[in-house]
């Protein structure tokens, strides 16, 4: 694969030093998980001063499955009922945690005056599909049942996720549509991991996937989730949302990705299909940005992307 470093936004070059290339295997997966276990940076004093109550809850799993841990971030000085976000963290289906996002979610809950519930879903390969998406559905069911307690307006409840979390959010939106039990007001997808067939395409985009999350990582993640080689004929759309034949009836959608992201082609294709299905869709592609560029909060392009994301959430939560 040709080098794409010359295409990287200059403000993002520094982050690459913190993410040296590596091969993702089951042997080093514990170290990867440990590395992603730390909380994203935020001034501790500012975080403590936020008018947001953060609690940990255990909610019922579905169909005899184990309980699901969720973190609840609820504003203490806002008007109720308010909108809500069910957040699903990223990590290639094999790593990441809701706990790492606590500072980010507390700040976002305060800024948007909304309830944010983040799911500690079961990771692969220990838990294969459909364990993770069913954990997310259990969290959605709990939010709906606890709406009065949470001060939540169910007409303004949406789902959000990054990377694998974006893939789970898209799968959850399809699952909610098809089961017909809960209506989502929006899906907010940040460089979502949507299509296992990206692993086996005969014509990969030569300008994507060099940094942070590459083709080997992607193959490992999808294989871990599915338990079989990706790209086969029987992959569920609730595992890989791009597999869904019909996207009609999905909620208004926000998709953001980077021009150098391994997922840019599948993200563009999904956005096009949503538009052709009559789903209101907002799409952003950031030049010079690779997968995970949000991990550099000081980069200019990250600031632009975060502004676009937050403004979109504010509009979606307004109903």
List the helices and strands and how they pair.
Elements: H1 13-16, H2 29-35, H3 44-49, E1 52-59, E2 68-75, E3 82-88, H4 102-112, E4 115-120, H5 131-145, H6 147-150, E5 152-162, H7 164-179, E6 187-190, H8 215-226, E7 253-258, H9 264-276, E8 281-286, H10 300-318
Helix pairs in contact: 5-7
Q: Which stretches are low in confidence, meaning pLDDT under 50 for 5 or more residues running?
A: none
Helicity level: 25-40%
CATH classification class = Alpha Beta
How far is the first residue's CA from the last residue's CA? 45 Å
Here the CATH topology equals Rossmann fold
Estimate nothing, just give the exact number of structural domains.
Answer: 1
CATH H level: which superfamily? Alpha/Beta hydrolase fold, catalytic domain
Mean pLDDT: 95
Mind telling me the C-alpha Rg?
18 Å
The description of the largest β-sheet is: 8 strands, mixed
Any overview of this molecule?
This protein has an 8-stranded mixed β-sheet, with helices on both faces. It is globular and about 55 Å long. The chain has helices at residues 13-16, 29-35, 44-49, 102-112, 131-145, 147-150, 164-179, 215-226, 264-276, 300-318, and strands at 52-59, 68-75, 82-88, 115-120, 152-162, 187-190, 253-258, 281-286. The protein has 10 helices and 8 strands. With 319 residues, the protein is α/β, with parallel strands linked by helices. The chain starts with 12 loop residues before the first helix and ends with a helix.
